From TrEMBL, chains A, B:
<dbReference type="InterPro" id="IPR003156">
    <property type="entry name" value="DHHA1_dom"/>
</dbReference>
<dbReference type="Pfam" id="PF01368">
    <property type="entry name" value="DHH"/>
</dbReference>
<keyword id="KW-0378">Hydrolase</keyword>
<dbReference type="Pfam" id="PF02272">
    <property type="entry name" value="DHHA1"/>
</dbReference>
<dbReference type="GO" id="GO:0003676">
    <property type="term" value="F:nucleic acid binding"/>
</dbReference>
<feature type="domain" description="DDH">
    <location>
        <begin position="18"/>
        <end position="155"/>
    </location>
</feature>
<dbReference type="GO" id="GO:0008441">
    <property type="term" value="F:3'(2'),5'-bisphosphate nucleotidase activity"/>
</dbReference>
<feature type="domain" description="DHHA1">
    <location>
        <begin position="228"/>
        <end position="316"/>
    </location>
</feature>
<protein>
    <submittedName>
        <fullName>Bifunctional oligoribonuclease and PAP phosphatase NrnA</fullName>
        <ecNumber>3.1.13.3</ecNumber>
        <ecNumber>3.1.3.7</ecNumber>
    </submittedName>
</protein>
<dbReference type="InterPro" id="IPR051319">
    <property type="entry name" value="Oligoribo/pAp-PDE_c-di-AMP_PDE"/>
</dbReference>
<dbReference type="InterPro" id="IPR001667">
    <property type="entry name" value="DDH_dom"/>
</dbReference>
<dbReference type="InterPro" id="IPR038763">
    <property type="entry name" value="DHH_sf"/>
</dbReference>
Amino acid sequence: MKEFEKLKQFIDKHSGFVLVGHKNADGDCIGTMSAFGIILEKLGKSAVFIVADPVPHNYFFLKKVKDFKVVNTFDCKQSPVILFECGNMERSGINLENYGERANFDHHPDNKFYAELNIVNPEASSVGEMAAIFFREYFENLIDSDVANSLYTAIHTDTGGFAYSNVKKSTFEVASYLMSKGLDNQLVCNEVYGNNKIEKTRLLGYYLENLEVKKMKNFNLCYGVLALKDLERFNCTSRDTENFANYPRGIMGVDVGVFFLEVEQGVFKVSLRSKGKVIVNKVAANLGGGGHKFAAGCTVKGEWPRVLDTVLKEFEKDE
Amino acid sequence: MKEFEKLKQFIDKHSGFVLVGHKNADGDCIGTMSAFGIILEKLGKSAVFIVADPVPHNYFFLKKVKDFKVVNTFDCKQSPVILFECGNMERSGINLENYGERANFDHHPDNKFYAELNIVNPEASSVGEMAAIFFREYFENLIDSDVANSLYTAIHTDTGGFAYSNVKKSTFEVASYLMSKGLDNQLVCNEVYGNNKIEKTRLLGYYLENLEVKKMKNFNLCYGVLALKDLERFNCTSRDTENFANYPRGIMGVDVGVFFLEVEQGVFKVSLRSKGKVIVNKVAANLGGGGHKFAAGCTVKGEWPRVLDTVLKEFEKDE
């Protein structure tokens, strides 16, 4: 925890900070930035929050989120910067100018340790969990229900509701600690998960209704597809399909799930998800993409259902 | 914890048990029965597991579930019985004959304390949490990963993935403890939530695609409906609609969600769910039903969309 001590000194030393999220910032990144913002304010310090993309509306309930600025370029005027979940500087999606000392706060294993201070723990479920442990150690008295709600948002979203393998004993211990600090877990989950756009919900419905299961040589595959005209019909954009790739894998008896999303006319983003029996990043690589063993992706050009054929053939080759 | 001491004595005293679940047993009930079964076996005692309805397939991975018997009537031959989440004897849905001493293990506030030994804690998130605390106190060394997975199934399903207001500090503490006993939280969640029937998923899709939002005088209502012919078309039964009632409430800007399910020709089960602004059990009561302030239900006879009109009018009356 030597890094935590250094982070404490980093915070003590400065009076104003620039907090930077990653491209398409998620619940972990946004919740943790919000929590840092509240703590810094209580310390009498100022913070500017910047992200490259608009914050999804389901995080608007968090205290600091209304102050988040969406920017392409930012002049830091020599202020110290804390980057959240940015494995490298480009990951922020922001052209940062004139930044001062940088703290790099992350839990991803591919982090490049590029900053003056690198606090990177790939064992942590989330940066929310890291922040909770840091705050508990140094700012115990400043943790209020807003901080707790922000950090629970981070932890709950990044662990899929305590469902993923990144959950450790410490993750539950931190959640238990946050309960003692006024966490309203129901409020958080209602806001984050119970606030769905009707258009997106109907699009999801159409997508689920039309899922297809395909028997391959040695395994079962389930796929779903959304064409540009479907997005248009439901008054949605590709940003409304976040998480859709996980549904086909969730079908009983299915080993691999595939989500085809037409991102431009005749260009399909293909997301591959495996339950663990079939390795999918080889297939993705053969089609010019990449990724992890059990979660990978690629882009395939062509018209439907030729694109489907291309991907299915690649799977058969690979078996 | 006097009751826990008595339960320990109850278990010590007998060598064979009948474990009884409630009608349409859920993850909490099934997981906890499974955990008790494993512990009893390790103690060299025998257990019979009985339920009134088939166990949903997504719980088949739990160690003891293959031994569960589905019965209407059961001759206990004077064996001691442990009833799980049965507020009264009828709640089991089983005609129990010749039962011996009864232990009543529940966390619902409406429990009737009808048994020789009543272990009822309405503060507990789940009977899974109660069981974990009991086992930790008396059978610490017998808790293995199968017990931990069974109890996590119970806790995770009954708290909506640590999302509901029944979650306490102790709930997370118990989960943390189960991690130290070999809990595989990812396995549990993959099995419980990632094992959906394709037919049910398509039915859910159709339901979501056709959700409607209705502006009432002082609030917004979202409803979905499934007719008998829809269930038939998707090759599903009403049992495949478990949890469907929660989706309409999950829409942004909506205060009340309503799910209409045709259970017989011209007979609709109506499930009402509120986000907290509108009290719904009064509406349900006016239509001959009942329930909690924010989750209630009733049955309305008639043809669609007359049934919808009836319910909407009742809401307008109530405003």
